[in-house]
């Protein structure tokens, strides 16, 4: 029972069995102390953590949304694509699980090594092609004898969808997907060794009234360089990018050319509303500031300097006498 979490009903049933004598507590302790042996299948090696699988699921959920928008616009019909599952299995097991004749798009993802496989169920592929040819979107499974025109239409369609795969992956890697091969028989396709671990993301796909699956098979060799980026710590941390010296220099030059509003405050005064209402042309307001006291110089409404009024080249000017401490953005 070690390593398992019991529900409240299971706990109540266990306590009841001990209290009624149906189960001996000593035997329970003895059973618990015995070593549990778990069978490990070396052919089905788990090379990705659950956290990393969840990250890949998030990436392809975004890809599914982008594909839904893309195919809806291209086919002008109802399209719904969503992630059904994400699992890691041996490559051989994946090949056995897909139809003997299907649509296989193989593409490279430089700068990453290896190739990625997108398997499209023939029902879905033919429904797409029927819509693009002006039909209602019905599916006819005759994948074993595709014509050159049909092959070209399908290849072009799925090649254009790779742009959205690049966009979905840009959070962890900047890839440039390139269509490398198009095949219909999985037995003729050997991307990696049979026991190589691959991640298979299955997408539930609906085109009009036709439903099927799109499977994306990603070998371990492709993901190996970016495995650290699939952890939750990478997703949570702030992405800091060091600026190039040229960028910093250009930023400084632009800042130096920025205009700043400068104002010199001659003084201030407080009057009552009654006095304000009685004011007329020619009235004089007495300021709190005296001629001997320095003037406050404000930069963007923030006091920065003390100065005195004067003239320079027959123009009114102010001379800076000292810098105010604490003259930050809050005006303190």
UniProtKB/TrEMBL annotation:
<comment type="similarity">
    <text>Belongs to the FliM family.</text>
</comment>
<feature type="domain" description="Flagellar motor switch protein FliN-like C-terminal">
    <location>
        <begin position="254"/>
        <end position="324"/>
    </location>
</feature>
<keyword id="KW-0472">Membrane</keyword>
<keyword id="KW-0975">Bacterial flagellum</keyword>
<keyword id="KW-0283">Flagellar rotation</keyword>
<dbReference type="GO" id="GO:0009425">
    <property type="term" value="C:bacterial-type flagellum basal body"/>
</dbReference>
<dbReference type="InterPro" id="IPR001689">
    <property type="entry name" value="Flag_FliM"/>
</dbReference>
<dbReference type="GO" id="GO:0003774">
    <property type="term" value="F:cytoskeletal motor activity"/>
</dbReference>
<keyword id="KW-0145">Chemotaxis</keyword>
<keyword id="KW-1003">Cell membrane</keyword>
<keyword id="KW-0282">Flagellum</keyword>
<keyword id="KW-0969">Cilium</keyword>
<dbReference type="InterPro" id="IPR001543">
    <property type="entry name" value="FliN-like_C"/>
</dbReference>
<dbReference type="InterPro" id="IPR036429">
    <property type="entry name" value="SpoA-like_sf"/>
</dbReference>
<dbReference type="GO" id="GO:0050918">
    <property type="term" value="P:positive chemotaxis"/>
</dbReference>
<dbReference type="GO" id="GO:0005886">
    <property type="term" value="C:plasma membrane"/>
</dbReference>
<protein>
    <recommendedName>
        <fullName>Flagellar motor switch protein FliM</fullName>
    </recommendedName>
</protein>
<dbReference type="InterPro" id="IPR028976">
    <property type="entry name" value="CheC-like_sf"/>
</dbReference>
<dbReference type="Pfam" id="PF01052">
    <property type="entry name" value="FliMN_C"/>
</dbReference>
<dbReference type="Pfam" id="PF02154">
    <property type="entry name" value="FliM"/>
</dbReference>
<dbReference type="GO" id="GO:0071978">
    <property type="term" value="P:bacterial-type flagellum-dependent swarming motility"/>
</dbReference>
<keyword id="KW-0966">Cell projection</keyword>
